[in-house]
Every structure is written in structure tokens, then in C-alpha cells.
Amino acid sequence: MNYGYDYLEKVYAGLLGKVIGVRLGAPIEPLFWTAEKIREVFGEISGYVKEYKNFAADDDINGPIFFIRAIEDAYRETGTLDAADIGDAWLNYSAEGHGMFWWGGYGTSTEHTAYTHLMNGVKPPLSGSVQLNGTTVAEQIGGQIFIDTWGLICPGNPEEAARLAGMAASVSHDLNGRYGASYVAACIAMAFEEAEIDKIVLECRKYIPEDSEYKLMIDDVYDFYTKHPENWREALEYVNGKYTKEKYPGVVHIIPNSAYMIISMLYGKGDFSRTLEIAVMCGWDTDCNAGNVGTIMGVAKGLNSIEEKWRRPINDFVAASSVIGCLNINDLPTLTKQIATYGALYNRVEPDESFRDCDHVKYDFQLPGSTHAMRTYPENIAVVSNRNSLEPELPGALRVRMNFMRRNTEARVFMKPFYRRKDFDDERYIPNFSPIAFAGQTMKLSVMTKDLIGIHEIIVKPYVQDTEGKQYVSEHTWKLQNGQTEMITYQIPDGLEGAMIEEAGIKIINCGRDSFYGSIFVESFEIDGKCDYTIKSEKQYKEFGTVTPYTWHKGFWNPEEGSIQGICSDEGNLYTGNLNWKDYKLSGKLSVKNGSQAYLIFRATGNLKYYLFGFENGKAVLKKINKSLKAEEKEEILAEKPFIPEIGKAYEMQVHCQSDVIGCFINSEEIFKVSDKSYTHGFIGYRIENGTRILIEETGIKEL
């Protein structure tokens, strides 16, 4: 397989298919929605059954985009990958009790059960085994719905995709739960080189055991299809009569649901839309089934098979709900490049320059139809699409179609570096967010038009808007001229007064003598540079179970007395910031109200690895934490000295990280200066243990 632009485009189509299938099925996922009820209410489904402001996070999307990060966290360094590494990805990116997957109870939710085992040190594959959990728990559908990306990183190699997916599924599932994962991943991998869906369905059976119930189910449904090839509802009636919920217990057993997938792929006759519609109309676990089928169909049939009615409402935006807030804001083209980079890395080939993963906001609009989740206001005046949708011979660019913008009016074109609860209609899997753009950074855009006539005068001004609705607009303006690209730069001001940036983009202003009807093209958009960023606790909000702009793992965090309060019985972590921060100065002003264990977290890459500096049982300490399943030593004290904080007194804790040198300060007095090169980058936060209660007044971060 050539890991060039064609590969990138196939990955994009697969991810689009996944997100479309999940979004289509999610509103009718609850068990109330039987196939009969779906038909009664919606008839023949031919489009989304529910509109969303933005579609919130979903486990079907969380699992594939986070568990594949074992490639980044383990394989990149060691060149090897096993089930324990993927188990570490579960622990690293999942916050206990919320987000990521369904927390339906130990022994009921397979994922909840497996996570509990992992937290107690049980390694895969035992954590997901029948031996430990029994057949019903082990054969639910979760192992299958999380594996799409393992297929995407093995283009044209279904055997390896099946092996990786089975290994990944073993963290939580066994037997048919693993076989289904292997089968679907093999289908995705094969779809890179085979477009005939019937062939994919049949050929990929060889990657699961010959006598497995999963394989026998595929044969059975295919045999029925050959005898009754026209009416999918006849096949559904047959499957519902044979593969009953009584025979396959649990909330979402893999066998009946996978039978629905086979029905949809066979009776969909190779049509992307019809295949997903059938998958959803069959009922039961609608978003899971349509999501997996969507990935297979997207890769096999390509971007041209995906109708605009599916793509436009998504607008390339994907929310997630990991414990790392900056990773929960995704646009599909950027995510595509990340997955494609993992594919090249895993297969030991040099990634094509066009899809190298990027550690900051960088949109190039080159993938066909891509928008990178850019938005406009007012939406009825400025409408986004991609230039290459209408003119495929031209390089991609965000096309902003202005519909009679009156003189002396303006429109905004922007990306959202931060999301709040008001941006969503529901709370599926409780997404938490940390910003991906900050004060001190520089925004860069290239903008042009070809549609000006003599009476037009269009100027552009970059701006940002904070979470309190306050706008900061550049004093400099750029006047557009036909055919001439304007390079626009703007340093985001540091006077945001502790609020978050929720819009970053440009104002398009019509200063001419008449209305403007035409297109403005954004050819590139980038935000990069060093941040200088303050979070004032008094300006934050309690949303999605935490306080903005933080995510949390255990403990309880809420606004209190103009501060952010943290309480815990055992432990609690509060996180914010960017995973890619390397050298920086971190400050946190906090007071201990009860207990004796309170710390700053820094250079964190998840729940498993980070440094701690703070108070611990009458001492100031600097510690290194490694909670991975393979780690022999879970924590190491790098420095300590006696220090008893006064209860209720505010202390300014500071950490300066530069290369391998870590300096630790309390109220500007240096406490430690240590050299340690174990962790080179990561986000920040707070940790409390053993009944400690703290109040956080302010947090500051300045990159060096």
C-alpha cells in the first residue's frame, strides 16, 4: 500500500463514515427503539432523524480515536505493542465514572467491568476474559465498536488488522466479542483495495475461527441473502426469529447486532447511504452498527459516495470525552492526518508530507470537501464549503459564500478553540474541554477573493471572542483585491482577564456602496506560538460535571467562594492545558482547607505519567508518577524537605520546567532544583489525596 495522498483520503472517508453512522443511529439507540417502533415513527429513514447544534461525544468515537494512541505512547518508543499497552491507553485517557464509554455498572457494562479490573492491576487479556467475567459480559458489542482505527492503520493488510483488533478487544472482551473486532477491522483494511462489499463480507471470514458462532452467523445470513436478495426486511425477520435476545443475553450482545450489520452491507448493494439507513432501521444498537458499517463503506466507496446531506451537518467537527480536554476538540481532517501518521509509523514507512501530524492548530483545507469545522455568523449570510467541491482542479480552500451582505455590515468566519455546555443539545458521554488556542499565540490566515467589482470594498480584521462575549479585534485591517492573497497575522492579546477564547477568526466587513454577493476564500488557517495564559477561578463555570476549563479524574470539583474547590476521600485529579507544552512556567495559587496532600501536576500525558510538586504530610515534595500496567515502581520521590502549610493560608506554588531542569517554588522561594528527563512535555493541573480539600484561586501558564 502506498502511504500517500490516496491513503489519506481513504482514511478521511472511513472516519466520516464512522461519525455519520454514529450520529444517524444515536437518537434511536435506546432499547425502546425497536425496528417496529422506528418504522412506525420515521417510516423509511433517508436522512438524520434529529438535528444537533453540535453532536456531543459518543463511546463509538471515543474508543477508536483514543485507544489507537497506544501507537504514540508505546509503539513509537519501543517498536512493540501488546494488549497491556492498549490497556494502558484505557487507563490513561479514561476518567473514572464518566465519559469515554458506558459506565453501566460492574458486571453489566463490559467496559466498566474491564476498567475496574485494569484499575486493580489485572492485565489484559485476563481483564476481558471469559475466565474472569463469564460469557455474557465477554461477548457484548464493545470490543467491536472501538476497533475501526486498527483497520485504518493496516491498509490492504486484513490479517494484521484482525490480529491488532483482536488484541485490542482482549482488554475488555473475549470469544465472539474478540472475533467480531477482528472481523470488522479486517473488513476495513481490505476495503482499501476491494470495493465490492459482498467480497469483503465473505473474504474476511477467514480471519476468525472456522467454527466460531460469529463466522457461522455470517454464513447463515449470507445464505439467506442469496435465496432472498431483494427485501432486507425479510432478512431482519429471519434474524430476529433465530438470533433472539433470550438466546444472546446482555444489553447489546455482539451476535444479533452483527447480523444486522451483515444484512445492511448485503442488502445495501454497495450504496453508502442505503447501507447505513438499513443498519439503523434494523434497530437495537443502532449507532454501533451503523458506525462500523460506515467505516467499511467509507473506505470501500470513497468520499464521492458520501452525500452532502450527511457531511454538512457534521461540518468536520468531532467532540470526544477523554480525560484530556485539548484532545476532546477535533476536526476530522486533522484527526485523519493523525491516524494516517500512526499508520505510517506502525508500518515503518515515512509518512507523506501532506499528512504529517501537527502539534498545533493548522488547517490546509486540501481534503475534498473539508471545512476543518470552521464556522460563520450569521449563518444565513455566510455559508462555508470547500472550493474543491465545485472546482476539483483547484487547490482546496474554505469557500465562504456571502449572500448579499449589505453595506456597512460584517460577518465572522472562525474556529472554536473551546466549547461550553450551551454549544450542545445533549450530554452524551459528558464531554469536558480545555482550550486549544491561548493568549500570546499568533493567528495566521491567507485570504483572497475574485468577486469584487467597482462598487465593492471588502476589508478583513482578525479577532478573538472570549467566553464572556467580549471581542478583541485587531487595529490593523487588510483590504481585499481580486486575485491577490492577503497574509493576515494577529497576536492574541494577553488581556483576556482570565476568560477562555471561544472564537478565533476574521471579521469580513463590507465598506462598499452596495451589497456584496460573492466568495471569500480562506486558503490556510493556523494558530501557533507560545502561550501566556491565566485562568481566574472566579470567571469559570460549573458544566458537564466539572469547572471550566478543566477535566477531572475522581474527586469532586466545583465553584466555591470565588475559587475552585476540590474534595476527595481517596484521590482526585483536575487537568487543563495542552498535551504538547514542553518548557513552561506554571503557577497555582491555592489554599489547603483540610488534609495534608495537595499538589501541582505538570508535564502530564494522561492519568498514568506526570510530575507532582506540593505538600505531603508535613513536607514539600517533588515526585515522578508512573502508573502504567508494566511499571515496577509507581512513584519516585525526586526531592523533599520539611514544610507544613498553614490551614487556610493561600500559597503561590510555582514550577519552572526547561529541558530536563525542574525548579519548584513556594511564594517565590526556591524549594527544589532537580534534573530529570523522564517526561518532556504535557499538560497541567492539580491533585489531592486522602481527604484533602483545597481552594484554587488562580492558575497561570507561560511557555518559555
Could you give the topology of this structure?
Elements: H1 5-25, H2 35-42, H3 59-67, H4 70-78, H5 83-93, H6 110-119, H7 130-133, H8 135-138, H9 142-145, H10 148-152, H11 158-169, H12 176-191, H13 197-203, H14 213-227, H15 232-242, H16 254-267, H17 272-281, H18 286-301, H19 308-314, E1 317-319, E2 329-331, H20 332-346, E3 361-363, E4 375-377, E5 382-386, H21 387-390, E6 398-405, E7 410-415, E8 442-449, E9 458-466, E10 471-473, E11 478-479, E12 486-491, E13 501-510, E14 516-528, E15 532-536, E16 542-543, E17 546-547, E18 551-553, E19 556-560, E20 563-567, E21 571-576, E22 584-594, E23 597-604, E24 609-616, E25 619-626, E26 635-642, E27 650-658, E28 661-666, E29 669-675, E30 683-689, E31 693-703
Antiparallel strand pairs: 1-2, 3-14, 4-7, 5-6, 6-14, 7-13, 8-12, 8-14, 9-10, 9-11, 9-13, 15-31, 16-17, 18-21, 19-20, 20-31, 21-30, 22-27, 22-31, 23-24, 23-30, 24-25, 25-26, 27-28, 28-29
Helix pairs in contact: 1-18, 1-20, 11-12, 12-18, 14-16, 15-16, 16-17, 16-18, 17-18
Folded structure, characterized:
The protein is built from 21 helices and 31 strands. The two termini are 41 Å apart. With 704 residues, it is an alpha+beta fold. The model has no long low-confidence stretch (mean pLDDT 96). The chain folds into three domains: 5-325, ADP-ribosylation/Crystallin J1 (ADP-ribosylglycohydrolase fold, Orthogonal Bundle), CATH 1.10.4080.10; 358-529, Galactose-binding domain-like (Jelly Rolls, Sandwich), CATH 2.60.120; 533-703, Sandwich (Jelly Rolls), CATH 2.60.120.560.
